[in-house]
Structure formats: structure tokens, C-alpha cells
Amino acid sequence: MTASEEPPMRIAPVFLVTISLLVAASNVTAGAWPRAEGRVFISSAVRLFWPQDIDDWTSRKPSSQYYTFYAEYGLTERLTLGLDLGRSVSGDGKTVVFARLPLRARDTGLRIAAELGLGVIDKEPVLRPGLSLGLGLKNGWLSAEGLSEISRHTGAADHKLDLTWGWNLPQNRKFLLQMQTGLPHGKKPFARLASSIVLPVTPLVSAELGGTWDLTGSETFGVIMGVWSAF
Fold this sequence. Notes:
Elements: H1 14-21, E1 40-51, E2 64-74, E3 80-87, E4 93-104, E5 110-121, E6 124-137, E7 140-151, E8 157-169, E9 173-183, E10 190-200, E11 205-216, E12 220-230
């Protein structure tokens, strides 16, 4: 590169830092924390992506996008049922129903829950076992959620692990920062940072705004826009 050449422009991850300095809302305890009996949580979002390198842009339109829908229902105090629609670890479309049970649910210390899901990814039947760990903090929580998407025909498996730090703020607001990692079968592993803000709109509905930044496996950044509801 000569002195007259400019390095490729990238959308700096400052936008993620900016999001991190903002506040989040809504009560969103999942994974190791089961839904209370009779309680429902639903969320739906659109996720838009652009190349990190502006020189790769052909227009301002996103280079890719997809939609997600997620729901949980507390069938009993211990059993949570759920539906997960969107994109799998491999990047293909998914439809998975699951059941989650706590293995350790004490008021203090580590919480542990196991889940088992059945569904379809890219028109192939899959089995999806998972394990969630959670630790309540004075003003928030830490969690780790791992799962495997296993083809029932070939036995090939994709693996995913998400690490989350949640911070409770005044007025029922929360800040969420997440490291998302995955190991798709036959593909490169990936890791990305994600941060979300959820702002109450009504007592039952909240609006979500967030962003993602790829660290490995790809070179895109993303914007998340969605709605949450718990009742």
C-alpha cells in the first residue's frame, strides 16, 4: 500500500459501544430461569446485515436479512415449552419446538437447566439438546447457553454457545451484552458481539434495538429491530 492509498474503510464498532452505553428494558429471564406457570414470553425481530468494509457495499440496502420469532410458555412451575423460528447455527432456516426443565433451581448460587428440541432445519429433521447455566448478581445476571443441532439422518451436528451479561437498571430497564459463538458442521467457526436495548412501549410490549459485530467467520455488522412481550 502506497502513502497515497487509503486503507479500506470499516464501520468501526463504535456503534456497539454506543449501544452499550445506552440502557435496556423489559424483564427477560430465560435459559436457566424457567417461565412461571401460565406465563408467556414472545419476541419477533428482523436482522439486517452489511459488510464491515464500505468498499464492498454496492448500495445502502442490507446485503442479507432474516426474521426471527421466539416464544416460551410456562406449562408448570418447572416445565417450560417453547417455539424457535429463524436461522440455525449453519445459517439455514429453522423451526424447532422444545421443552426445558431445571436441574438446579435454588434461589442462590448457580442455576442449571436442560432442554430438548425437535424440529426442521433446511427441510431436514433435527434433534436439539441444550444446557443453560445462570448466576444471579446483585444488579443483574450472567448466563451461558449451549446447544447442538443434530441431523437425525446423518448425525452431523452444529454447535452454539452464547455468553450473556445482563444488568438491571432503574425503571425495569436492562442492558444486555452477549458473545455469540458457533461451530457449524463443515464450516468455519464464528464469533460475534451483540448488544441490545429494549424500551417499554406499553405495560405489555417493548421495542428492541440492537447491533452485532462479527469477530471471526464473517465480516459483517448487523442491526436488530424487534418487539418483545411478556404476560
